[in-house]
From TrEMBL:
Pfam families per UniProt: TetR_N
Signal sequence extent: none
Keyword check for Transcription regulation: yes
Residue spans binding DNA: 30-49
Domain of life (superkingdom): Bacteria
Keyword Hydrolase carried by entry: no
Entry protein name: Transcriptional regulator, TetR family
Domain spans labelled HTH tetR-type: 7-67
Length: 188
């Protein structure tokens, strides 16, 4: 089931579950609470999604798709490859203002559901590999001497900024990461 083929009840379930999972944590939110908040029965949740695990995966996939769209919009607006690297940090700043004050939902979910075989782990790895690939392609297009190495450093800056913004322990974490990224791209 894709987001555009959801029934109205499934859409309410997914929207409700997404809000609850992100703000309260996956383990703290049971199917009873989702049903009550969405105005459906537990049976409707299972009929539409099959299991809580599949609902979690749907929540994370949809959130990841929205995140990627924000990044791609910022990349498309960047005037060049070096500026595009910085645009990813601009995307992060926009995202955290509107959708991500608690940090990365995939990282949070992977921390809660830490079994290596859990599908959440694969989703988190897939998203981080996607972003690493975007950074690598940008550095290759800019003619950087070590695009793969730069991409790893940029990913670390990005993920560290997301975590520290969510935790709130580093003032202006995203701004500082953006400045460090700018220094990195100006070197080569």
């Amino acid at each position: 089931m894709t987001a555009d083929t959801l029934t109205p009840a499934a859409r309410r379930i997914l929207d409700t579950a997404s809000e609850l999972f992100y703000h309260r944590g996956i383990g703290a939110v049971g199917v009873d609470l989702i049903a009550a908040e969405a105005g459906v029965t537990k049976k409707t949740i299972y009929d539409r999604f099959g299991s809580k695990e599949r609902l979690i995966v749907a929540y994370l996939r949809e959130r990841d798709a929205r995140w990627r769209a924000v990044v791609e919009r910022h990349l498309a607006a960047a005037p060049g490859h070096r500026e595009a690297v910085i645009a990813v940090f601009d995307a992060l700043e926009e995202w955290t203002r509107s959708d991500g004050e608690r940090g990365c939902a995939l990282v949070n979910a992977a921390a809660e559901l830490s079994a290596p075989a859990h599908p959440v782990r694969a989703l988190a790895v897939e998203e981080k590999q996607w972003l690493l690939g975007r950074f690598t392609a940008l550095r290759e297009a800019a003619g950087a001497p070590d695009p793969e190495g730069d991409a790893v450093e940029l990913l670390l800056l990005h993920e560290g900024a997301a975590v520290m913004h969510g935790v709130g322990e580093v003032h202006a974490a995203i701004d500082r990461a953006r400045l460090a990224a700018r220094r990195l791209v100006e070197q080569g």
